[in-house]
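#lab-general

N.A. 3:47 PM
ok so I finally got the sequence cleaned up, no stray characters, all 372 residues accounted for. can someone with queue access submit it? mine expired

B.Y. 3:52 PM
send it over

N.A. 3:53 PM
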Amino acid sequence: MKDYNTLAVDARKKNGGMIFTGLKTKLETIDDLATYYTPGIAQPCREIAEHPERSKQLTIRKNTVAVISDGSAVLGLGNIGPEAALPVMEGKSMLFKQFGGVDAFPIVLATQDTEEIIETVKRIAPTFGGINLEDISAPRCFEIEERLKEALDIPVFHDDQHGTAIVVLAALINALKVVEKKLETVRIVMSGSGAAGVAIAKLLKTAGAKNIELADSKGMVCCTRDNLNSQKQELCSLNCGSLADGIKNADVFIGVSKAGIVTKDMVRSMNENAIIFALANPTPEIMPDIAKSAGAAVVASGRSDFPNQINNVLVFPGLFRGLLDKGVTNVTDAIKLNAATALANLVENPTADKVIPLPFDENVAPAIANSV
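B.Y. 4:20 PM
back already:
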């Protein structure tokens, strides 16, 4: 088995990171210099000064996204700070370019203060056509995204929230077809009430789910519990037991929390033809093969070494491709639902082992872009 940890470090040592800037046209002659720098450069400056919106056609803003993080909630690693988060932002930028043709630039911030993050992003926004927020801890991430969406005239998208939610909804649409159940009638229990969990629950409700119950590290998020934040207050239920209590007689379990918290007995306590999406990385809430052996009908995880990998790369490159191409400035619920439907429809005949396309499916990014 390959040691991907060592390979990742060695590649970055060799290359000094994994992305670079390039030129879109050759710069070889005096005419080239006069056209692309002085004196020719003055005219696009004048046009943008008179019509600021033209910067989105005449500069890199046309195809450039900032991937921004404070390093406070890096997947599987926690609050590791900006420098340590930079490889993840570089990796995200690679995926933007590879799958969506989007020029993305990683930016990590030496602050975890909400107001400082908002002000910093607002001040650098004139350089970019879109903002992709990444690995910012909850509940700060909710306020940061909402205030930036209100302040900026370019799309702002927190991928940990909405990218995850879109892929989960797409996979669930197809998983429910496999087990012949309806989103409107199934009982869904979720573990994890941070950025991803809250966004998934909200999008599933928007899509028609009527029975969703959340759990966190203290057990089920019960409405009678003290000190619930506003997001948990909105999504709380009357189920006040442990996760093991809550999962009984559920049709669907979705985990975006921590490794190993779901047992075989918990799977067996669910309704017949249960669906398990165990998405904690790198080790899920329950390993897919164990969930299958306990009787789950459809199992998905965040891992590439099992069927049904739920991976945000299926969404964000194509989504920003569509947003940039079509000049869309606000990622609405309708856009998210359209993207989830488009992604689900790429699997024409869903089976237990295929409810979501593979990341290297060349049809994915164009389908998501066209859905915008």
